[in-house]
Structures are given as C-alpha cells and as structure tokens.
Batch of 2 targets.
Target 1
Amino acid sequence: MLPVFLSSGLFLGWSLGANDASNVFGTAVASRMVKFRTAALVCSLFVIIGAVASGAGASHTLGKLGAVNALAGAFMVALSAALTVYLMTVARYPVSTSQAIVGAIIGWNLFSGSLTDTASLSKIVTTWIACPALSALFAVALYLPIALMIRHLPLHILTLDSMTRWGLLLSGAFGSYSLGANNIANVMGVFVPVAPFHDITLFERFTFSPEQQLFFLGSVAIAVGVFTYSKRVMMTVGSGIVRLTPVAAFVVVTAHSLVLFTFSSQALSNTLHAIGLPRIPLVPVSSSQAIVGAVIGIGLLKGGGGIRWRTLGGIASSWVTTPIFAAVICFVSLFFLQNVFNQKTYRPIEYELTPLAWERIILVPGADTSMHEQLDDIWLERFPNAQTFRQALLDRLPTAASTIPAIMDIAEIDRFRVTEEGIEGIDASYLNEEEMQAVRELAGQVFTHRWRLEEVLAESSAAWRARPDDAVFNAERRRKLKYLVDTLRSPAFQ
Amino acid sequence: MSLGILKKRIGIQKQLDDFLDQVSEASLLFRQGVDMFIGDRTEAFDEKIEQVTAIEHRGDQMRRDIEKQLYIKTLIPESRGDVLQLLERMDTLLDSCKAMLWQFKIEQPDLPEEIHDDLNELASYSVESIEAIVRSARAFFRTSPEFADHIHKVSYWETESDKVSTRMMMAIYRRDDLSLCHKAQLKDFIRRISQIADRAEDVADRLSIYAIKRML
C-alpha cells in the first residue's frame, strides 16, 4: 500500500518541479543564456542534494504544526495540497505549495481533533510575510554593488556575457539546492512520521535516515517534474513576473536562493544562535513569492515605476486564501476517505491521567504536588482527543498553562503489546545485538505510554540510554526508538 | 562552456575590434582620397581607391564571420540583434566611403578653386563623425563610461558638416559662372559627403537606445 499512499506526495513533488524550476532557471533558459538540458540537469541534481542534505529543518517545523499519524491521512493531506495548487493555478491565482500544505495539515488537525500548535503556526505565517520582504532587501543589497561594478569595470560585452552565463548557472545551482532544502518538507514532510523506513547505510560510510530516504524519493519526483514539464513554464516568461535582463535575473535568483537558504539552514540558524542572535525559524516558504519580492526590490530601487501592485495584493491575499482553501478541501476529502472508502485517516490519540502518568506529571518543571488536587476529578478519566483534554486541563490549571504541553505528552495513551511476532518483524540488521536483547526481554509486556517503553529500555540496557555529550548517538537512538515503536505497534503484530 | 569557448570568445572580441578598425581606416582613406583628388594626384588617388575597396571587401567578410559565430554559439542572446544591426550600419558607413571615392573616380567632377578648402573641411567633418561613432561603438562593447562623451561628438560633427554643406551650396548656386548642370553635380557631391555624417548620426541614435536597453 505504501507506494499508493506516497503517490500523492510524489505528484505534489512533480508539480513543484514543473512550476518552481522556472523560478530558478526561467529567465536563463527563456533568454537562451543557458540550455534547457543543462539547466534541467543542474536543477535536478542540486534539488536532490539540497533535499537529502538539509531538508530536515523545515520539515520539523511542519511536523510540529501537526504530526499526521496515519498513512492514508498523510496521503490525503498531500493530495489536498496538490489539488489546491492545481485548482488555484488553473484559476490563475498566485499559489504556493508551502501555503497549501500548511492549510491541508490544519485541515487534518481539525478532522482528527488534534491540536494546531499556534506557536508554530504564527512562526510559519510570519515567515511567509518576511520572505518577499527579505528577498527584496537581498536583491537591493546585491544589485547596488553589481551595477556599480559593471559601470566602473570596462567589461567587454562578451566578457560580461560569459560571466553572466556562469553566474546564472551558479545561482541556479544554489537556488535549486535551497529549493530542495526548503520545499522538500512540503512534498514529503507529512509522510515522515508515518513511513515505516529505517536507516540504510551505504558502503559502510553514508547513513541515510528514513527522513532522507523519503526526501530522496520526493526530490526525484521534483526532478521528473523539471525534466517533463518545466520547459513549458520557463518559456512562458512575462506572465505575472516582469521580463528581466540576464544580469537582473542573476540578482533576482541569487536573492531568492539566499532567502530560501536562510529559512532552511540549520547550520546558519545555529551560528546565529551561537553569537547571541535569535534563531531563524526553519519554515518552508514560497519560491515564487521570493522571486516576486526580489523583482519588486529592484523595481523600488529604480523608482517604483512599472511595479504591478496587483501582483503584490494577490500574494498577500494568498497567505490567507490558500491555507483556508486547502484546509477545507482536506477536511472534506478526509471525511470521504474515512467514511466512504473506509480508510483509517488518523490514529485517534486518547489521553488519560493513568497512575503512571499521575506520578510523572508533578515532575514537570513548574508543576508541584498541588496539581494532584486540582486535577483530582479527571484522574483516570479517558479523553477522546487532544482538544477536549487540553480544554479540561485549561479549566483546572488556569495559572500553570505553561506546563500543559508537557502534561499532555505524558498523558498521551499509546497502548500496545510487545508480541513475539512484533520482535520477529524488527529488522535485526538495523538494531545491534545488545539493543535487540533488551527488546526481546520485553516480550509479552503491555505498554500504555510510549515514554514508558523508552524508560524501561533505558533501565534495562546501556545501549538504549542517552549519552549526555554524544548528540549523534542520541539522534540515532531517537530514530531507532521511533522505528522500534512503529514496528511493534503496527496493527499486524497486535 | 569550456575554456575553448572562452578562447573563441576572445577571438570574436578581437574580430569586433578589427572590424571597427577597418571602418575607421576606410574613413581616413576617404579623407586622403578627397585631398588627393583636389590636389590632382591621380596615381595616389587610384591607390587609395584600391585600398578602400580591399578594406570594404575584408570588412564585409569579417562582419559575416562575426554574425555567424554570434548565432552559432548563441552568444549575447539579449543584445545579439542589436549588435548585428550595429555591425550592418557600420558596414554601410564603410561602403559609403568607398562609394564616394568611386563617384569621384567615375564622374571626375570639375571642382572650382574656391570650394577646395570647404570641400576638404566637409570631408574631414564627415570623417570625424565616423571616428566618433567608431569610438562610441568600442565604448558600447566595453560598457565604458566614456560612451556618452563619444556619442555626443557624433552629433557635434554632423551639425558642423551640415553648416558647411549648406554654406557651400548657397555659394555655388549664387555663382553666375557655372551652368545649372555643373551646379547640380557639385550639389550632389556635397550632399553625399555630408550624408556620411548624417548616417553616422543615425547609427549613434540607435546605439544610444541599445545602450539604454543594455542597462540592467
């Protein structure tokens, strides 16, 4: 079933490749500065590298917005986003995959009764607004020195031509890398929590996480989109965006790439944090809007004539309309998928303050024993979804709202039995012997909370214990735990 | 886009420069030729005619070569059309220098003593305008800030040559010792020489527009 469910994500990837490659290489190809074949090859290669190497950052933000927890649900989320993009493109409305997917995830959250993390949502929306503005700023900052250089260095028209060609190719490669890094989350992000993959090691040196494998598949779909359909889009220059000279195109594409890079680079964000500046939110943004922002930046620099303010208005309204449209489509189609086609679009997450959780919640930072009295009446009461449980907590803990997310994590019911078949189903080449031994000892046990399994494993074996100063090991441990729980809990083994 | 293409690009760059050299050389030959015709140095004049014919031939070949290479290698796709038009117009200037000398050779006009100085002056203004347009074209190719300076000089020399030609024609038509037929022949020579400067100015007008188009 997996390929069928992944197909909607791959379709979304294909349409992203067909549309957004023209942002990166459109002017270069349309003006015949770069051959289409060269452009398509460079674009595909760098989209794949960008997606696999640094696609994780933006995908985490989407994951926080809403973790789609059933494959059929992820399928429908991606399909609704793809449909929204398609319909709005047909209606000649400026549309971005990033906005569509966010809307679709919110649609799933509403349908499944999960919570939409408002902090993540506001972070995402702020970034959308910042994206064209920042792009305009970058474009102006690049344009001024380049224009100065061209004016004062007596470059021959042919030398400039050759420099521009190389510039367009390099900025296109950088743009494709950033596009892959930033936008792969739109294509494959929703599948990350549900795809049953585990680490693959090639040549005993390169390890690819499940996320990276998904991103690879998604970026290949993007590459197929680039090769099969983007030429047409590239050649229809002048629809929407102003026709640019090659040098201006270089500036615009570089500014766009810098913006996308900024919003997807973990390293850059860490560096800024290290020198005391605020972290950059890693959010999927719209490549087209970054381009429009850069064009407008140059337009303003030249006195503001010839700027199509309508385009700008269209963009601003799409920040609102696209997500709402996608959310509605997603909600309605999830309803059909669930009730007409009998597919499980989400795994209901129930909450209960079980005795285990009861002891744990007072250990949450900011909590104390008085909490037990306040929550006494909902002890052992089962809540069907996150929204009702959160409301119940809010009513009883009006002064300690900051502890609620942690309490919800602890109270989340994830009940499964560690069966012999489940242990057989684990890929023994992925977990080492010591880790497997610890898992085998759990056979027959039933867990009500996911964190309890992690605790028990860590108590019984050093191999499952977090090491305080080994970030790589800890990250791998988390991925292995996720794989382990996903496998043990899968319906086939229960 | 290997180093080979880079070398070829430098090759075209040199060819462009050489082509402009031919145009400027033809204009210099034209001035010398007029001077020699007036001075009645037939042999030297014939030599100049031969030289200018050879240059015109070479110029044609070079222009075709450059055009072909620009198209085959899809160089400067944005301003290719403009560059090609510029080359063709420059070639027309070169042609008119040659054609003018041939007209002297064919018609052997009888030039009255009084207009010798003016004719020399007129020819030299036309040549100055060609020189200025050649410098403008070089500045255009190199995106040099001196471009505006050179372009401005083209119009200056064109105005000067207009003034001289008007003055000459006025003087000729007010003379009683020349037949109308002779006057008409002289007028034709004067007009065609001053037309060279007019053409140079036309090229300059186009070139200014190309330059604006080339700005970012």
Target 2
Amino acid sequence: MDFILISDFLDEIGCCRICTLRFLKPNIDDFLDVENSLKSKGIPINQQCKHETKRPKTNTCVACFNVFNFIDEIIMKVKSSEWLKHYEVKRFVTSYSLPVSLDLAQLQIWLALIEKFPNMFDSERPPDISIKDVMKNILNTKLSDDLHKEFHPDGMMINIFFVIDNEPEMMTKLESVAPELMVERNKQRKKFRTEIVSRNYFEKFFIPKNIKLEKFRQEFSVPPQEPSSALQLEKITFTGPTVFVAGRYNKFSRALSQSPWILNGKRITEGSVQEVIVDAIASYFKVSESSMTFMSSGREDVDVRCLGRGRPFVLEIMNSAKTFLDPSSAVQMEEKVRKSNVVAIRDLQMIPRDDLRHIKSGEEDKKKIYRALCTVDSDVTVEILERLNIEKEFEIQQWTPLRVLHRRTLMQRPRMIYGVKAFAVKDKPNLIVLDIVSQAGTYIKELVHGEFGRTTPSISSLIDMEIDIVALDVMDIDLNFPKSLNRT
Amino acid sequence: MEKFYLNENEYPEGVSSITKFDTGEYPSVVDRYFTRFYHKKTSEDGNENEDHLILYHSNRVCLIGLAQSHIAFKKGIVGITYNIGNCDRSLNQVKGKHKKGGMNLQPLTTLAIITCKDGSEYKVLSCVTGKLIETNDRLKGNLNKLSIEGSGYVAIVLIKPENCEKAKSSLVSEKDYIPSCSF
C-alpha cells in the first residue's frame, strides 16, 4: 500500500493528521505519538503541511470535525467534576456518543478512497480505525494518569456526548440515497420511536457495498466538503458501576410480603422485606432505592415466616458509588434491618456478577424445608402420626394452584417430597405439626389439603381425611450461598 | 402419643413457636379463598330446584358446581358427561399464561349433563361469561364428590377482568340466597 499517495489525498481533501493516520492501517497505540507514527510510515512531516497554502479554509477536519481538539477540554472538565468525589472507585471506562454525521463523513471518504484507489480499499470492511477507538486510546491513557485510576471495564463510566447542529435535516437525505436501506429502519422507528438512523444502523448497513455511488453523489459530495456546522461537546456524565450485594434474610411476620404488594395502584400491605433491606443499604452506595433490584432464591407467601438460616438474596445496585463493602458497615446494615423487628439479614457481602447463577439455580432445584401447622376435624391419633412419618421420598403431581392460576400456565407439575415428619401438640388434640422437605417450587399449602383433588397424592389423601393448613414457616433453604461469614 | 410431641425449645429467642398461632377462628379452604354466589334455576314446570353454586376467587377464577339444594342430589346421581352432544367439554385445552384456546362460555352455555337414577337429565350451566379452563375428571367414578363444596366443582372458568362486576351482579350473593322451590 502506498501510504504517501493516500496521505497526500487525505491531506488534500482536508483530513487532520490523526485522521490521516487512521486510514493508514495503524496500530491502535500509534496514536499516542501521531507525528512519529506518520514518520515511520514514510510520511514526512513537512509533507503534511504541503497543501495548507492550497486549502487555506480547511480549519475543520472533514473526517472527525476536529473532535480530537476537545481532548484537553474533556480532561479538564472530568478532573474538575464534583462527581469524581461522589464515586469512590478505582477504575473507570469511557463511552462516547458521536453524531451520525461522523459516520456519514467516513462513508464519503471511504467511497472516495475506493474510487481513487480501487485495489486498496474494501467495500465491506471499514478503511480506518474508528474515531471512537482512537479517542478511547488517547483519552483512557491520559485520564488514567490524571485521575490516578485504572482503566477497566468494571469501572465507573465517563460518558462523553458530542452534538452537531443541523444533523436531522441532513439525515433525511439518506431516504433518497438508499430507500431500500431505510425500509427496515422505518419499521424499527415506528416501533421504537427513535431517530432517523442510529449510529449502529448506519455503521452496519451504510457501507459502500450497499450504496450506488451516482445516486449518493446527488445528495452528498464524494469526497466530503468541509463541514458547515461545528461539533460541540454537549455534556459529560458519570455512571457508577453495577455491583451485587448478597445475604440471607429472615422474615418474622405473617403480614409482610416479600416485594411491595400494590394492586390497582393501592397498597395492600404496609412495607415489604425488599423495602426494609433496600432502605438499610441504599445510602451506603449513594443510590436511590429505585436503582436497586432485589432478587432472591424463591419467595414465601405474605403469611409465611422465613426462619432458620434465612433465604438467600442478591441486590443488584446500579450506578453505585462504591465497589466495596467494609465489614463494619455491613454489620451496621444488618443491625438497622433487625430494628424493623420483622426482618433480619445476615452474611451481607459483595459478590461478583458470576455468582448470580447460584441464586437462579436455587429457585428451581434446591431442597426447601418447611414446618406446617395443620388442623384435623377429629383428634389426632398415633395411626395418623405414624402414617405421616415418611422417610422415603415420593413424587406428587400438582396442578397449578387456583390462587396463582390467573398468572401461571395451567399444567400438572411433578414435585419431589423428600421426607415428612409429623408431631402432635401437647394439649391441642386437633393439631398436627408437619416438617416437610420438598423440591423447590412445591406449593406446600396445596400439598397439605390437596386443593379439591388437584394435588395428588396430598397429605389429606395419604390419611384419607380432611386436613387443613393454618400456618407455615420456611425452616431452611438448602443452598450454601452466599458463604456464611460467622459474624456476630 | 408423648413421643410424637413437638420439641418447641428449638426456636431462637424472640421467635414464637408455630403452635402459638391462633387457630381459633381459622376459616376453611373455601372460606379463605372464595366468595359464594348462586345461580337460581328451576325446572320448566317450576317445581324442581336446579340451583348452581359459583365459588368466586378474587383473581377471577370461578369454580362452577351444583348447589346443595339441587334436585339431582335428592334423586341420586348416576352419571356425568362433558359430552353435551355437539361438543365434548373434557377435550378443552388451554395454553400458556393467557390460557389460549379455552372454550368461550356464556352464562347459559352447558358445561356438562348429569343423569339421575330415574333417568332424568340435568344440564350444568356455566352461569358466567368466561373461558373454560379445566373440567373435573375426578368426578367420574366418584359422583358423591359432586355434593362436596370445592371438590365437587364441575368446571373452572376464568372471567375477563372487565366482565367481573357484571358476572357478580347477575348472580345471587350468599347473604341474599334462598334456595329455589323452598316454599
């Protein structure tokens, strides 16, 4: 490839040095010293200036609209931002929002290069290293030094937005240039009510292979003219990393739902496990409660307590200001939740995103241990108790319970019952306590009374008499996640 | 019996044993989840009670069955069929969360036909506008179940949210219900 010819051509149409280098098949690190990299490709420095007298008005690069001139301003603005103090994180990433006009300029240059150097440029593979990648490379290196933070995908995100004035008008011309490419896009637009073309869509479909040059030339010049409107740095925003906090919760109330129970805009019960926990944790990570997502290994009904080690849960915290949880703060959060008197949490800890799968797997295939308080019409006998001490596992078939039928598919689901133990209660002859070990997903209330024959066998069918469940506790969830911390 | 007593000392401090739960006024399964409604019907000559019982769940699921006062119980029921001539209701199938494919029912749609000892037949009606979700195949061979509230349901019908109020107002509430032909 003749770099000097290409460099000459790009210089002539009004590309800046960085952009010239972008089209000369460079390595990404070449942009840290543009002059030297050009020199090593055989482009003499003075040659870069050769045409300046010929084209005195090329103040704005036709390819990048002088986006690289903003680097110092960006660094200055980031460094002086209040948000830097807000986010107590050691890592960062950068993201860029650039106008589609820059993609259009790339296409104009690309078409010109193919026309001029037909054997050197492909009509599908981009001819250059993208502006975004060059910006990233230059800025990440500089910011890393200036902010004393490490560049890392898990870090806080510095979002840099550029805008250009008359972009939408220009984009309407695309319709006449390549109507066939806009058919699909217009379908998407109706659905998502979005801009004329997104950068993604442009980059994917508006490539020389799909463009008829003559038609394109009717609306846009090839090579491009100097931009008529200027690129502006619109804003810089910050987004904290997403972190995950896991723990186990106990629920001591029979009138507390796991998530807020709101029906037709009206609250049915006051408070919820989720709200109590989120409320104790949000301020530490400096987030609002709405940017936390509560996940758990299953859920219990509003009138069911969750005792024992408790139920594993994970909070997804978006836009977090911290990426660590020190033990003393964790203990404070646990104490604050305990003060609610209805919820307790333990083993609170940060977990990596990968560990989420433990919670999800816990929903389906883990054993759950329950204790049910049941009533029978007559007095409990030794025969009944002996019949209900079942060591051998057995399978039941459970039709979708009527109480959830409106939102779940009607089907018969097999569930394993791993064991049942029955106890009598002193001075209360019509009560039976059942300890039941079952597969996750078993509806225990229906397992006891059989729900009009829709769960078989049921505790009721096993003893061939009516038995009803009046109270239920979760005693344990057989999932060793998150790890026990043995804090007191 | 003593060896079966529950050891209640295992509970940690501040957590009460499950046996301390007050079972005194605890309602039955039907009373916990459902509201009773009735559809009053008499035979053509007006002498026989053919009342229906509708157990209405707040999630719009209805269990349709016969009221205790239905004449068929006095006569003795010897058969039930979901094959009502032009259509076999027991072949009903629903798919997915939204119960696609369930037969559409009007209040006077026949769900099933029961036969009595004397050979007389009675139609079981849907009583509400909705979608057929499930028929009760456990009734065949266990016809005495028909008289048990809940277990004796002939069909499960799901009412559309917008039709719930209309359905309820077209039925007789438990408070206002007087069995037909009880003069």
